[in-house]
Write a structure and sequence with these properties.
Shape: elongated
Number of helices: 1
Structural class: mainly beta
Radius of gyration: 19 Å
Strand content: over 45%
Order of helices and strands: HEEEEEEEEE
Distance between the termini: 50 Å
Helix content: under 10%
Length: 201
């Protein structure tokens, strides 16, 4: 990954983190990819597992007393053996409250399926079966991508609203279907707030 891309991604991450305030998460990346073996002579399938951090913006639009459509944009960063993996999911989801609290304030446990697209890049270089790296015509390395359609499922607890802001704690699994490169799986624990709009009955 060249310096301009890295700088751009860092700026995006800082802006998201600053704007999101409490919208942060700890995430675990799992993927399987081909990497050169210890002597670099050939590629072998290796499992990659890395703990990273994420930040996101989440906006909810009420469609019923216990349901909302949510729109989210986020950013993840992971590091693995000196390599960096960046991803930025953009998802639309439907949050359904499983059982509202006795006060009927819209709080309680929820389930939230989501779908969208994840943009992403790595500085893990593509190689052929013999471990020889690929380059573009102008000599730049060709890196593995982590971009593609994405699906996710979250389960958590939504607290009573405070104005337009709703705090929640959730656990989410996200899978990105990557064409030609390894698919990614991310499990994240998030402590966050979403900005909610729309009339509450």
């Amino acid at each position: 990954m060249n310096l301009i891309k890295k700088l751009f991604l860092v700026i995006v991450a800082v802006c998201l983190f600053t704007a999101a305030q409490a919208q942060i998460e700890v995430a675990r990346l799992m993927m399987k990819t081909q990497l050169p073996n210890s002597d670099g002579s050939a590629l072998t399938w290796q499992n990659i597992s890395s703990t990273g951090f994420g930040s996101f913006l989440n906006f909810g639009f009420s469609v019923a007393q216990n349901d909302a459509i949510t729109v989210e944009g986020g950013f993840y960063y992971f590091s693995y053996q000196g390599s960096s993996i960046y991803s930025a999911p953009c998802l639309i989801s439907y949050r359904h409250l499983l059982a509202s609290s006795g006060d009927n304030d819209g709080s309680g446990f929820y389930i939230e399926p989501a779908a969208g697209y994840t943009f992403g890049d790595t500085d893990i270089q593509e190689s052929d079966a013999g471990g020889h790296p690929f380059y573009t015509a102008n000599g730049n390395p060709i890196n593995q991508k982590v971009a593609g359609p994405a699906g996710a499922l979250a389960f958590g607890y939504l607290f009573a609203p405070s104005g337009w802001i709703r705090f929640n704690i959730g656990l989410r699994y996200e899978h990105t279907f990557v064409n030609g490169d390894p698919a990614t799986n991310v499990i994240s624990l998030r402590i966050s707030h979403s900005f909610s709009f729309g009339r509450r009955n």
